[in-house]
Every structure is written in structure tokens, then in C-alpha cells.
């Protein structure tokens, strides 16, 4: 059984508006990739077990987004989709 993030895999665009100024937020990718220089190279499911979010259990990919207008940051969970091999 395998789940993939539709945003990370280019199947969908992440379109979220800022809660402060209603502008479209910029996606900066998986929050797990920002933890350190080797984070992007770790197994995704391994990181999900230790990152403090319920993303593994809920089949989600946690992204960090920021507003180019007011500078606020937000965490957004993207529902992953089931992929058959």
C-alpha cells in the first residue's frame, strides 16, 4: 500500500489563501525537508513517524506556506492519494 502527495508529485497545485490578508500563499514544500541538510534525503515515512504530526496515520503531507504580501507563515496538511503499483 502506497500513498503519495499530489502536490509534491505535480498532480495538483496547492492553492491556499492567507488568513490575514487573503493573498495566495507560496508553497515552500514539505516541512520535514527544512529540518536539516539531510532531511530531504531521508525516507518520507520514516520522517513522518518522528516529526510530531499525525501525518503518517492520516496519510497527509505537511507543507509550509508563506504570504508574499504580509510575510505570515502557515502549516498546511495535504491529503495524500492512494497509488497502486
Précis, in short:
The protein is mostly beta strands and 85 residues long. Helices cover 11% and strands 29% of the residues.
Mean pLDDT: 93
Strand fraction equals: 25-35%
Distance between the termini: 8 Å
Sheet with most strands: strand arrangement: 2-3-4
The helix fraction, in percent, is 10-25%
Question: Any overview of this molecule?
Answer:
It is globular and about 40 Å long. It has one domain. A hairpin with a 6-residue loop joins strand 3 (60-66) and strand 4 (73-79). The protein is built from two helices and five strands; from the N terminus they run ββααβββ. It is mainly β.
Topology (elements, then pairings):
Blueprint lengths: L1 E3 L21 E5 L13 H5 L6 H4 L1 E7 L6 E7 L1 E3 L2
Antiparallel strand pairs: 1-5, 2-3, 3-4
Primary descriptors:
85 residues; mainly beta; three-stranded antiparallel beta sheet; two-stranded antiparallel sheet; 11% helix
